[in-house]
Amino acid sequence: MRSLEIFSGAGGLAKGLELAGFQHAAFVEFNKHACASLAANFEAEKVFFGDVKDFSLDSIGDIDVVAGGPPCQPFSLGGRHQAQQDSRDMFPYAIQAIEKLTPKAFVFENVKGLLRPSFSEYFEYILLRLTYPGFNVKSSMQWQEHLAQLRAVRKLPFTGVRYDVKFKLLNAADYGVPQTRERVVIVGVRADLGHHWSFPAPTHSEDSLLWDMHVTGVYLKKHGIASSKILPMDSSLDDKVQRIKERHGFFEPQHQAWITVRDALAGIPDPKGDHGISDHIFKDGARSYAGHTGSDFDWPAKTIKAGGHGVPGGENMIRYADGSVRYLTVFEAKRIQTFPDDYVIGGAWGEAMRQIGNAVPVRLAQTIGQHLAQTLSNKTELRLASVRECALI
Length: 393
Prior knowledge:
The protein is of the alpha/beta class and 393 residues long. The chain has helices spanning 12-19, 32-41, 91-101, 120-131, 143-154, 206-214, 218-223, 235-248, 261-264, 330-336, 349-358, 362-392, and strands at 2-6, 23-29, 47-49, 65-68, 105-111, 163-171, 182-190, 204-205, 256-257, 295-296, 317-319, 325-327. It has two domains: 2-202 and 361-383, Vaccinia Virus protein VP39 (Rossmann fold, 3-Layer(aba) Sandwich); 205-343, no CATH class. A hairpin with a 5-residue loop joins strand 11 (317-319) and strand 12 (325-327). Helix 1 (12-19) packs parallel to helix 12.
C-alpha cells in the first residue's frame, strides 16, 4: 500500500510505516534540516522541501494512506479565526489532502494538549472535518459556524465520502518504547470499505517493570546489578509495589515490562571513548536542579522534547542512581525514540535533538501501521475466503 507523508519531520512515523510494509509516494516537509534527514534515509527524489500548500496532490497518483503530524497551535476560542484560513493551523491542509486523494485511511499524531478542556470544541471541529472532508467551509464563515453545520450533518444521511474517525491518547512506553511519551493519535478509515478500526492493545506495562525490579528481581539479574545500583523506592513507589503484589498474588503481570533507559542503551560504548560512532559524541555541561533532573537510568525516559526556545536539557539528560547526570548523545536519543542505529539525523546536537523530539517513536508507528494494514486487508481476505468456499460447493 502507498502512503503520502505530510508534515514528515525527520521521518519517525514514515520509518515505522515503512517497516509495517507501506511504500512511500512522497514526503512533504518545510524544515530544511528535517528534509536533509529524510533525503538521507529514504529516496531523496521523493522529498518535497517546501510549504504543504505548494505541493501538487495531482502528481502522486493513488494513495492508500495519508500520514503525518499536522501542527495545530492553540486557538483563542474568543477570537475571530476563520477555520482553514488561519495560518497557524495546518489541519485544514491535511483535510484537503484527504478530500482530494480519498485514501483508504489516514493517521495523524499530535500533542496531548489537543485534549485539554479549553480546546475541546475546536478538537471536535477537527474530528468532524476529518469525518466529512468534502463538506467544505465557505471562505467567509468562521469555524464555529462550520462546526454547527457539521454537527447537523452528523444527524442526517450523508452521501459524500465519510471516514470513521477514532482518536486515543497513547503512552509510547505501553508499546515497547523506552520513553513515557503521551501523544494523541487520530486514525480514520473510509466508511464505504466496511473495516472496523480499533487501536492496538498495549504490550508493555509499568506493573510488569516494577514486578521485575522489586518482586522477582529479574531486571537486576538481567543487567547483573545490585539493588543498591538503582534508584531507591520512595514511599509512593513502595505503596504501588505492594498494591501490585496484592493484585497479582503469585501470578506475574501478563504484559512485558516497560523498557528502561538502561535496557535501551545496553551495548552502546561510553561516548567519551574511541568508538567510531559519528553521532555518539559526549556533550559536556549537564547540570541537575529542581525541575531539571533528567531521565532515571532505570526507568523509561521522560518525553524527549523539541523545545520552542532551544532544547530543554532536563528531558534530554540521563540521571544515574548516584545523582550524576549527563546529556544524551544523538545516537542514544535515537535509541530512545526507537530509530534504527543507522538512521541519519542531520545537524548539530541541538538541531538533531529537535528533530528527534518532534518525531513519532518508530516502534509505536510500526505497531499502528501493522495494525492498520491488517485492518485494511481483513475484508478482502474475507471475500476471498467466501469465493473459495463457494467454489467448493
